[in-house]
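Subject: mismatched residue count in predicted assembly?

I count 365 residues in my input, but I want to confirm that the predicted structure covers every chain. Input:
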Amino acid sequence: MNHQSVGVMGEMRIKTDLDFADDCDMTLPMKTMVRITFTLAVYSLLIFALYTRVSDYYDHEEVGLYGSLLCYSCIGVE
Amino acid sequence: MTTSIIAKRWFQRLCQTGALFFINGYYAFFFTLTVYQGSLRSICLPVLNCHSCPLSFYTCPIGAIQHFLTIGTLPIFVLSIIALVGITCGRMFCGLVCPFGLLQDVLFKLGSIRIEIPPYLRFVKYVILIVLVMLLPYFVGLPTFCKVCPTAILEAGFPHALIDQDVGSKLFNQETGMFIGWMFLIKAVLLAVILLASVNMKRPFCRVLCPLGALLGLFNRFTLLGISVKKESCNKCQLCARLCPVDLSIYSDPDSAECVRCMKCTYCKEVSAKIQPLSLSMRRRDA
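Triage response: the counts match. Full output below for your records.
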């Protein structure tokens, strides 16, 4: 931490870390707040997704995609 | 050219080429003539690589989103994988991994005439994401983007039509040799237009049409891996724009949703990659 000598009414004193802390704006910038919120949301989502047993979730064969693993829409068959 | 630039250039080429063979590495298809059906299929990498491609290991995230929406299920796992990659490195998978991006980059090197893409066209991909990937599959119950996806016809349509007789019989009338349906033809024409455009335009599909790019681009502003520009010493020489595969002047907006994080702009000494940790930033009030 930087220390800085300042003159106050003719006397010298060392500016302390506490003084510097008083001068600082401790509020988070909006971008950092959004980034933290986003990251937490993403990790929460991933944990939730894993909790819901992904493998079972993927065994759905109703539209034939993961059953046959061939998507006829992709191939171009009508 | 300095050694670091040569190294960066080779790194990008190796990433793109390596990813092409890593994602499409199921060469057992040539012996079995059946697509891969193992457990890797339940993982989707955030690149537009068709899961019906005979050589593909992984699921296409856009196909998977549509699949779950057609059956009325929220695609939580797919979205969380996309979000995890997005929050970590933004659209880097578009720039360094996506095989269709590599194809467009290669085609652009062949062209001599250069055509600029109007900036307002970039909003088309958001419309495609919302309408074709989300709303229509949910309400109509069909994977509508897959029906027009040019990547799918290239990676799955043509190979299956040539190799798989069963699929071929569904596409062509064996006696007349004519198309049975128009969907294959429409997709083939769309692919041809995109490939021809790629010769004279930088990544037209990624910039105008790709719904996955639209989704990943939303994270570019909040990603942990960012790009830093020394604005005080940058003389706006446009070197970054000339190198950029999406025509972006990185000094104007380093966190743009259009940036594919290929890191080519870091060839300029005023531009560098930066890790943006989740640290508290302390600002002086009098600063």
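Chain B touches chain A through 58 residues (CB under 8 Å). Marking this ticket as 'not a bug'.
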